[in-house]
Design a protein that fits this description.
Blueprint (H helix, E strand, L loop, with lengths): L16 H7 L35 H14 L2 E5 L2 H10 L5 E6 L4 H12 L3 E6 L4 H7 L5 E5 L11 H10 L3 E5 L17 E5 L13 E5 L2 H14 L5 H11 L2 H20 L4 E5 L9 H7 L6 E6 L3 H10 L4 E2 L9 E4 L14 E5 L5 H15 L1
Helix pairs in contact: 1-2, 2-8, 9-12, 11-12
This protein binds pyridoxal-5'-phosphate.
Pyridoxal-5'-phosphate (PLP) binds next to helix 3 and helix 4.
């Protein structure tokens, strides 16, 4: 005999985001049901049924999708990577679309935009997203405003409420890459954006062990189109990866709280360090983006970028010398990572060659600082 009892999903609107990360995407509360949705390992399902085939749906995907839906407040699709989510979105733009986008966003997105331009599929207007007047001037005639904020790795902050309202007032689609902030810090759909995209690889999964992406939207027709694109282009996630991401998401609240606390203190100390020229972190009161970030964000994230005073080679020496901070790309994991961004040839020319991006993890603050301080001093 199975009985169903009340579930927190019945009243998500009343729950804080901190509770939603824990409670969303759980199985129905029936007698002896598991507390977690299992890993669904099936490529096909018995007829007749709503799913039918493994490329069309999977219970593990649905669990993660409903959890992200509770955080971003929009119907959600998970993809095999963040860049798969972004390229799926770009793929439904009409030919000749005009995209207004950051001049130095995530390097993979910049490559995609460059390809769209080269093939004639789209025209791209590159802007400094933190320069509101410049973005507003670029908007008329645009098809899509693509906002990444804070940007990776320049940590510029766009005035999202103002830009989203301006774009929607002109019937321009707005998509936001919310990877750096996470829904705990800002909810773009609630600000009026049409679409929010994540690299779930980063904070949402949080343990540097999966590659995944997502798209959320309140627009049901758009959701259906994107769902069809995922079915046919096939950028579907693996059930195990999705299960890991949901497991990681459960601690997003405490991870973000701790990582952001560490990041603010480390950014403050880096600003006083002899090996550091310029620190970029919107949480610093001296940062040019601090006031605008404070006006609508509920935190500042945990990625810091800074210019090494000794130049690019000294920056490489510092990154290679740390013991606790791993010398690796990516961000948003429990472990701290750093790298000089221009070790990748795809990094934007607007990013200084001596810029180090540091993803601050949840380690002990003093252990982290002593490691960073030693590596930087030794590299001068
Ligand atoms: C990493 C990243 C992506 C790409 O995501 P993948 O999961 O690596 O494909 C997109 N946007 C931002 C801001 C990122 O940091």
């Amino acid at each position: 005999m199975s009985t169903t009892s009340a579930s927190p999903e019945d009243s998500f609107e009343t729950l804080s985001l901190q509770s939603r990360v824990v409670a969303a995407g759980r199985p129905e509360r029936t007698s002896d049901a598991g507390v977690n949705v299992p890993i669904e390992l099936n490529s096909t399902f018995l007829a007749p049924g709503p799913t039918g085939y493994g490329r069309y749906g999977n219970k593990s995907w649905s669990a993660l999708e409903s959890a992200i839906e509770a955080l971003e407040c929009g119907s959600t699709l998970v993809f095999s990577s963040g860049i798969a989510a972004i390229s799926s979105l770009f793929s439904i733009l009409p030919r000749g679309a005009v995209i207004t986008a950051s001049q130095n966003g995530y390097s993979g997105t910049m490559v995609l935009l460059g390809q769209a331009e080269a093939s004639g599929a789209a025209e791209v207007r590159y802007v400094d997203v933190s320069n509101t007047e410049q973005v507003l001037a670029a908007l008329p005639g645009s098809t899509l405003l693509w906002l990444e904020s804070p940007t990776n790795p320049a940590l510029e902050v766009a005035d999202m409420p103002r830009l989203i309202a301006a774009a929607k007032g002109q019937n321009i689609g707005v998509a936001v890459d919310n990877t750096f902030a996470t829904p705990l810090v800002q909810q773009p759909l609630e600000m009026g954006a049409d679409v929010v995209v994540h690299s779930l690889t980063k904070y949402i999964s949080g343990h540097s062990d999966v590659i995944l992406g997502s798209i959320s939207t309140k627009d049901q027709a758009l959701y259906q189109r994107l769902s069809d694109v995922r079915k046919i282009n096939g950028a579907i996630p693996g059930p195990f990866e999705v299960w890991l991401a949901l497991r990681g998401l459960r601690t997003l609240g405490v991870r973000m709280e701790r990582a952001q606390k560490n990041a603010l203190e480390i950014a403050t100390r880096l600003s006083l360090h002899p090996a550091v020229d310029r620190v970029r972190y919107p949480g610093l009161p001296t940062d040019p983006h601090h006031e605008i970030a404070k006006s609508f964000m509920k935190g500042f994230g945990a990625v810091i970028s800074f210019d090494h005073a000794g130049g690019a080679q000294a920056a490489d020496r510092a990154c290679a010398a740390s013991l606790l901070v791993a010398h690796a790309t990516s961000l948003g994991g429990v472990e701290s990572l750093w790298e000089r961004r221009h070790r990748w040839s795809t990094e934007s020319p607007t990013i200084p060659t001596n810029l180090i991006r540091l993803s601050v993890g949840i380690e002990d603050l003093e252990d982290l600082w002593s490691d960073i301080d030693k590596a930087l001093l030794g590299s001068l």
